[in-house]
């Protein structure tokens, strides 16, 4: 039987190594930036970080599959473990010197995300979780603190975080999204991984995005769910199975799905 605790320990060890690499280059600004086929930026640090993670996983878990943003990989199989990597989530921030970026690594078993780490060294913050082991965070390498979602149960009291408006317009849900922003207490565009980590911490109540890839979401799922939250697609499917996401403190989930769900 798989020992999820050992996998979480491995994730934290890898995050330590990768943080040193990414933060050094972020601080020194000594990297090249390229344009991918989809016109989004990628740096040689994204690629170097993914290679570092892949090598560490290949050494420690040689029988597992690996899938990453920069180098692709294998589709999931029913009985095989798969690690899903986003070496730098928030590359646009990284290349502009904005400190809101993170390395995301998640472990999938039987189609379910069971362990993950989200490490944001420029913010001196890290979050991690394992199925049945809780959801945790640490600041500047300090003592771990348990994550727990909020108990907010009314939209009028809720804080909502998002990334942009463009995807909502393309999805045909911009009017519904704007209506949601009018119903909640507060909106902020913390963006990317950070929105979801703040949901897990209980300081934001809702995070939603209409356009995502699996590597954008995989590592977020265990951290939100183990903190007591819900993470689904905008169609209501559990986990990171769609190309979009809604994460909440659970209390608000169905009401927001009713507003933003569907095509």
From TrEMBL:
Any Pfam family hit: Inositol_P
Broadest EC class assigned to this enzyme: hydrolase
Record-listed Mg(2+) binding positions: 69, 86, 88-89, 216
Domain of life of the organism encoding this protein: Bacteria
Names of the cofactor(s): Mg(2+)
Annotated GO biological process: inositol metabolic process; L-histidine biosynthetic process; signal transduction
Enzyme Commission code: 3.1.3.15
GO function term, MF aspect, one: inositol monophosphate 1-phosphatase activity
Alphabetical keyword list: Amino-acid biosynthesis, Histidine biosynthesis, Hydrolase, Magnesium, Metal-binding
Catalysed transformations (reactions): L-histidinol phosphate + H2O = L-histidinol + phosphate
Pathway: Amino-acid biosynthesis; L-histidine biosynthesis; L-histidine from 5-phospho-alpha-D-ribose 1-diphosphate: step 8/9
The family this protein is said to belong to: Belongs to the inositol monophosphatase superfamily.
Described function: Catalyzes the dephosphorylation of histidinol-phosphate to histidinol, the direct precursor of histidine.
Protein name: Histidinol-phosphatase
